[in-house]
Amino acid sequence: MSLSDTALTQDGLPPTQPDARVLILACGALANEILALIKLNGWTHISLTCLPAILHNTPDRIPDAVRAAVEKHQADFDRIFLAYADCGTGGALTALCDEMGITMIKGPHCYSFFEGNASFAIRAEDEIDTFYLTDFLARGFESFVIKPLGLDRHPELRDMYFTHYRRLMYLAQTDDPALDTMARAAAERLGLAYERRFTGFGDLATALEDVARPDQAT
Question: Where does residue 109 fall: left (phi above 0), alpha (psi -120 to 50 degrees), or beta otherwise?
């Protein structure tokens, strides 16, 4: 099941299940992975709603969008879990979660929690010149990297944006040759060396397993 297989409400969010007691409020960039985990584990008491992934290009807008979504849905659920890391909000999402009594994924961004926050922290210093892709970004490279940076209109800006990068690292959540091809093409387009590292779902899976426990749903 993918996000494209899920009907959307008028505000662009997947509909909640009437009998669900736990809501995962997620970044749209995580939708496929969360839906896969829900299906794999048979979590019938968990529902998913997503905010637009493009909010990552304006992280200052994420907290207000999260607040509005929590206020909209909180009366229908016993618990809301925020499937975002800090994501460039400078701690604002953590403060919001504390204020509203919800929990969230630990970590600075999805690259870190897919890798595993502990492992990513160890590698971070040696990978300061690395540009990361996930499955979502490999699939949506044109829409979420090229166009927002204006490289479709001004390809000459590539050297300015990526002059300090040496390689593109594809952090793969799945073993999908088609996505590997897309990620490799992205590296070539940016003029970067290509590497692939399989992560699976990393700390996302662990966090959702905790959320799914019956004793955590009240």
Answer: beta
Q: At what angle do helices 202-212 and 31-41 cross, to 10 degrees?
A: 50
For residue 123, what are the contacts with CB-CB under 8 A and spacing of at least 6?
A: 115
Q: How far is CA 67 from CA 61, 96, 143, 200, in A?
A: 10, 8, 26, 29
Strands 79-83, 130-133: parallel, antiparallel or unpaired by DSSP?
unpaired
Token pair recorded at residue 161: 């944006």
Evaluate whether 187 touches 177 at the Cβ level (below 8 Å).
no
d(C-alpha 110, C-alpha 66), whole Å = 17
- Model pLDDT, residue 9: 39
Closest CA to 13 of 56, 80, 69, 67: 69
Q: Which two tokens stand for residue 147?
A: 């166009």
Buried b (16+ CB within 10 A) or exposed e, 153-192: eeeeebeeebeeeeebbbbbbeeeeebbebbbebbebbeb
* pLDDT tens for each residue of 26-48: 999 999 999 999 999 999 999 99
Residue 1: per-residue pLDDT:
35
